[in-house]
Every structure is written in structure tokens, then in C-alpha cells.
Amino acid sequence: MEEVMKEMNYDSKRTPLGNLTTSQIHAGYAALSEIVQLLNSGGKGSALVNACNNFYTKIPHDFGRKTPTIITTLEEIQEKLKMLEALGNINVAMNLMDERMDIDEDPLDKYYKKLKCHLTLLDHSSEEFAIIENCIQTTHGPTHNSYSMTVIDIFSCRRELESASFLNYGNVMLLWHGSRLTNWLGILKEGLQIAPRKELITGSLFGKGIYFADVSSKSANYCKATKKNDEGLLLLCEVSLGQQLCLYENENINLQLPEGYHSVAGIGSIKPSTYHLGVLSTEAKLPGGPLIEENMDCYLKYNEYVVYNPKQVKMR
Where is the PARP alpha-helical domain (predicted)? Predict the structure, then answer.
């Protein structure tokens, strides 16, 4: 955790990981929102410098001897959003591990129970394992050719209460979601979450939501694995897409979907050609390869799917 946050320039000496409160993280979102509003209105100069310094006051950064970076692009906003997400998930993990435990209880057993998330290892010889592994390999995007993926293990995942609260609008798919290793305790404990709604932060391609892909490597890129640390976790989720708003260009949706729609589909030019039923779910379709390219004038290379309500998602 320390290493990842150091890469993001977080100053853990000033505020150790786990000591940053939820209210401080929310204050970070608010400060970042102020920067976004200035960028959107063409603001710069001292106003932007002051807004960035305010963000760095809320969320301590370590720039060494360098001058603190002035945030000027949506890409930089995205990086700071990922930092806030990671800090929130690390807080969940630290709180989980700080709880008192019975001296006779195995720590791993206690932490696992506290997750309230049931993980079951799939047999490598099972049909489900074979299909999922095949879909991972056959939906590896041709432009993501700097690495390959090897499946080590697959776990079935069931979060308590997710099934009961699931909003099924139909058109259910099994889709991929990737994230850094530091986020996974928080994700397993709290589920996939959206940045606080009261803070209007743009920068994500289709607004603040939970993003999924039908191409495995598209999501794997967000795991941030490296040659040195080459293991990552991909999550397969049952996602209720319902009536989709299909977008072919970069259109930011910040407040809410138009009436009658349940999700956004950012349409890409490369997509899966097959779909599997009955894998981990009786209803959801699992996209498989080979990938095919259509001659479409699309902003995206690969499809993206976005929902704006966590209750439309079930981990599988």
C-alpha cells in the first residue's frame, strides 16, 4: 500500500495510511471539484494555483524538492480521483485490520468473516473455469500487445445482501472491472462504489459511474501490474444494463441519465463476437472471442459500459 501511494505522491509521513478520515477524503473530493470547475470555465493563474494548494492541504502530497504540480488536464484529474478512491479503500482495509480479535481466533479467518464476502475456488478442470479462462484470452485486445495474461486461479464471489438489493432491469451481462491491488479489500467489503454524488467531478469519459468492459485487457490495464509486480485481480460482475444509452463520442454525463435509460454504452470499433450463457449466472451473457472489428466511426476502440447505481452490480 505504501509503495502504491508513494507512486501517487501521497505523503504518508505527514498523514500515515489509515489516519486520513472519511471526512478528509470527502474534503479532497470537494477541493478537486473546485479545480474541475475552474478548468471548465477557463480559469487559470492564481485562482487555479490556490485551488490546487487547497487540494494538497486536504490530501497531503510529497513532491520532494519540486514545486507542487498545478493540475491542468482531465487526465491529471483522473489520477487524483484514483488516489482518492485508493485512500478510501485503504481506510476500509486498515479499519478492518485494526478491530480487536479473540486471541484464539486466526487473524485471516477473522478478516475473512468481516468481509461478509464468500469466496469459493473454482476447480481448474471445471467447465466454468475453462470458459472464463478462454474468454479472458480471446478478448485480449489487439492494441494491448505489450503484455499477456495467465490465469492463476478463479474464485466465485458472493457478497452478502447484494442479491437481495440487486436492481434487475434486464439486459444482464457479465462484464470485467479492473483495479489496483490496494483497492481490493475495500471493494470486497463495500462493493464497487461511486465517488460522493454531492461533488460534481468530471473527467471520466461518461461521468461519475462504475465502468466495465467486455474486453478483458481493457479492464486489466486498470490493475496497473508491472514486470516487477506482475499479479493483478480482475473482477467479473453481473451488471444490469437495462435500456442502454449508446454513445459514439465523448459525451460527459454528470447529473443523471435521461429518463427511461439505465446505463450508458460507449460504443467501440472492436467487440466480442460470441456470448456464453449459464456461466456463474442463469441470465447473464459472458462476452467471448474472437474479437471482431467493425468499420464504425467511433471515439472508442473498445466498448465501455457504465452504470450509475451500485445496486445494478453483483460480483460473481
Answer: 1-98
